[in-house]
Predict the 3D structure of the following.
Amino acid sequence: MSENTNQEQPDFAAMEEIYMALLEKINAITESGMRAAIAGLGLFPGARVLDAPCGIGNHAVWMAEAQADDRVLGLDIDSKQIAYARNLVAGTPLADRISFVHGDVTQLDLPDNSFDFVWCCDGLWLGPPERGCFVEEPYGVLSEFRRVLKPGGKIAILFWSMHRLLPGYPLLEAALNAPLGTNIPWTWESEPETHALRALAWLEQIGCSHLKSQSFCSDFQGPFSQKQEMNLLAAMNMIWGRVQDEVTPEVWQQYETLINPDSDIFILRQRGYAGYVVYTMYTESVG
């Protein structure tokens, strides 16, 4: 029986555009926390920084803005995101201090001992490819990071670690946070040591010392502009948009009512709205 070549295929180009638009919104709402984490890195004039994977380039820009005369190299396997990042800095005063290249974090085509800092934000979630991950163990990537780091340099690994976006509805938010769809790539079969918040153990496993964990919060307080509302709604959809089949109809109905801008109880216009997203940064200094 011949294959049906007329079967509708996924529009990967459109999916990519949607994903990059989502990254724009997530980077916008987490900017304050990211800038605080960058401020805690200890960047110095003339430092060389590797941002891998760099996504659409915002973090590289913020690192260049944080310290005069440092130089940032952003690396990502996604060519469209690299193109976006290059366009982001083109024609700006930072253009001569930031560059973006296509590359694979599992096999860095970079010389040994060439960077003072390696920054990896949300780029080392562990799991199988079908759960959206590109590695199932961290040690190969971390070894590559150590190889390109200068003696005395610093690795920083960051993960989204907590959020509170439905103030006044703690049980609803707890119900939405419990399903597997919210905890991708985690499953009941996942090994505890593969969880992102165990990253210090990964670093220790490859012989690192001077380990440190620190969390940074991005706070949101209403009233919001329309653009801010759109950014926060995009974050909620990213977190909870896949869990309808894993929660009760009552939970889903209440959630949909709260995030509907036409609702009388639209969560982002409720008086006194305050929420937050937390990133945790795990660092090690290489002697």
The chain has nine helices and seven strands. Residues 1-5 have pLDDT under 50 and may be disordered. The radius of gyration is 20 Å.
